[in-house]
Amino acid sequence: MSRRQSSIPARYFDDLYAGERDPWEFETSAYEQAKYDATLAALPRPLYRRGLEIGCSIGVLTARLAGAGRCASLVAVDVSEKALDAAHMRCRTLPNVAFEIMRVPAEWPLGTFDLIMLSEVVYYLDAGDVSRLADRVRASVEPGGHVLLVHWTGTTDYPLSGDDAAELFMTALGRSARRIRQQRTHAYRLDALALP
Predict the structure, then answer these.
(1) Which contacts (CB < 8 Å, 24+ apart) does range 15-23 have?
(2) Is 111 helix (H, G, I), strand (E, B) or coil?
(3) Closest CA to 147 of 113, 177, 116, 108
(4) What is the pTM of this model?
(5) Coil vs helix vs strand at 178
(6) Digits of tens for pLDDT over the chain (196 positions)?
(7) Which of 60, 83, 110, 165 is an S-S bond match for 26, by CB 3.0 to 4.6 Å?
């Protein structure tokens, strides 16, 4: 399978969600549920003041971050309006979540964050956009904040593999970012980073 050479465009996700409300089975997959459990368990702090979730999709992880008391305030963004509509509906009883439609890294939410969640999104970007994403993250993470990367490591046609995406992002973020936890399963890798 050959890889795409550039970042995947918004229409790719619009087409996916037009054909199916939950194309990756976030609601029903045992893999996804176990990965979400591991993701929440890997967070270094029990509570974050203001979190940012990039690529929130239909809001399954969003609801767990905001509804389980892990983020006092959470900004969740996605490139697909259809996905955001579903996420908004799922989280309608959670007043601590704000949703924004945007294409990262060209667009970025205002303010700073003590947690940035990049779950299964960095490999959709080409190397140039990964570098720009790292610049955005570095500029908006509060001192002592955390970044959590989670990526499937199977074969895809995305611009980067899960391993390449994580390594490229961490290199672009710079030496000041310290990996404080890494976990691998047969299907995904998880990297928790601390920034000074």
Answers:
(1) 16/80, 17/80, 17/82, 17/83, 17/86, 18/82, 21/58, 21/86, 22/58, 22/86
(2) coil
(3) 116
(4) 0.96
(5) strand
(6) 789 999 999 999 989 998 888 899 899 999 999 999 999 999 999 999 999 999 999 999 999 999 888 999 999 999 999 999 999 999 999 999 999 999 999 999 999 999 999 999 999 999 999 999 999 999 999 999 999 999 999 999 999 999 999 999 999 999 889 999 999 999 999 999 999 9
(7) 60
